[in-house]
Design goal:
The chain is mostly helical. It contains 23 helices and seven strands. The protein binds flavin-adenine dinucleotide, ligand DLZ and iron/sulfur cluster (SF4). The site of ligand DLZ has 16 residues, from helix 2 and helix 3.
Length: about 500
Amino acid sequence: MKPRIILILGDQLSPDIAALREADKDRDVVLMAEVADEASYVPHHPKKIAFLFAAMRKFADTLRQDGWQVRYTKLDDPENAGCIPGEILRACEEASADEALTTEPGEFRLIEALEEVPIPVHIFPDDRFLCSHAEFETWAEGRKELRMEWFYREMRRKTGLLMDGDKPEGGKWNYDHDNRKPPPGGIEGGPMQFTPDETVEEVLALVKSRFDNNFGTLEPFWFATDTTQARRALTHFIKTALPNFGDFQDAMMVGERFLYHSVISMYLNAGLLGWHEICDAAEDAYKSGLAPLNAVEGFIRQIIGWREYMRGIYFREGPDYTRRNTLNHQRKLSGFYWDADTKMTCLSEAITQTREEAYAHHIQRLMVTGNFALLAGIDPYEVHEWYLAVYADAYEWVEAPNVIGMSQFADGGIVGSKPYVSGGNYINKMSDYCKGCAYDVKVKTGEGACPFNYLYWAFLDRHKDRFGKNPRMAQMYRTWMRMSDEKRADTLESAERFLEKLSAGDRV
Ligand code: FAD
Ligand code: DLZ
Ligand code: SF4
């Protein structure tokens, strides 16, 4: 029997990945390839590229040790075809194969490219997720609104995580109410860091030589790059940070990049960890008294709730999702998203740490960089491309619904029932950013006022036809209408002046 090519992509590094389960060690050839197209369809952060290439190389080694025949193409291989379809054809020719097997990629772009390959490529469902496409469709069918909270309850029932019979542990499904504490005094610890080994060093040299101009600093590089390390990082998080995860989930602090977050999304999304082992470890921490319920419930909700829900939305909405622009926002992405050169401390902190770590936590992504882009009316496609490039955990299936849906409201309200916008008050309450900022969060209009303040009202005013009747926003519109004509005019003028400066490329 002819061999078949078993394609494993850079974010499919799980030993039980579907295509491998379909394969035959004695017959088939596993293909893994570092290719220019995947490394450059957006200008990925160098840490993201280095992480994936190192993890791919190590995964290929473990497959070989396990008896698989692996054909691995390095980026600098002179024969490299430069794209996944080209590498499939090259591998087929070498092995005299005429069909390939793979697992569904996480981006429509690549699914479409595989469909164009001129030999049969059999694509198997990616069952590393809790909820299949069909199951999500069944859940979504006939619902007026696709609210995450209802989906999440189904997933709790399905997994039995934090369930007491058919009731939620502790009597409530969601303990978010307890999870909004402002920044704590001091943070100890942080994610487990790993010294680069020989494989990582080799990849770092390659990435340095090829992607030095991309946004982002490559070194120090400390990510886990195999499952053993990723599991150590998970255990470290469960012991040291999970107990505080809930309380300070939304907090932000100058110089504190990780707070009590897990920093495991890049490992989970690439396949080095599975959702079940993460959730089981968190649930065990609750059962053994190591972590309180509000922390563990909040953490598990992110994984079996938000993460699965976002994937469901991406595959349900289809390839045009990233192009949606319900609010018709057309402004170009401001230059400071790439150089962090802004007087706004919240933005310079979030962007600087993104540049250095390829990481920012959820509230920084949502309420700082995302909030500003939405208030300033930046084109959501440009915002989407930025997020896809700069975070080590970014793949379209999870990034797009978070950006286009949750953060930019560009999908018209599929993910969120109202836009996530706020003035400076929210940022001031949840962070210590405002203390050292060139702008004054307490001032509402004029030169020295916090731009989030007037941009917030200008956003509401600009979109009053769409949001004015939304019951969840009625209170804010009442407050706006209660302001004097003079104050409203002042606010709109401050916003206009600021946005003119932004468009002119002035430092703001
Ligand atoms: P923790 O705060 O410790 O949370 C635990 C885990 O829950 C995460 O590792 C992640 O797997 C999951 N999770 C939490 N929130 C979400 C969410 N909203 N959607 C999906 N999974 C979630 N997450 C990505 O994995 N990739 C992205 O490209 C991405 N882009 C985002 C863009 C925007 C605008 C926003 C608002 C959020 C985005 N998120 C993305 C979700 C979230 O910000 C990250 O998953 C989280 O910050 C990763 O850090 P952590 O591992 O420390 O997470
Ligand atoms: C993100 C990425 C990068 C940077 N490079 C590669 C690569 O060279 N080879 C590969 O197989 N995968 C890579 N990936 C991950 C893919 O882009 C990812 O599989 C798709 O975006 C689908 O999620
Ligand atoms: Fe950000 Fe405004 Fe606070 Fe400055 S004052 S850090 S711009 S919220």
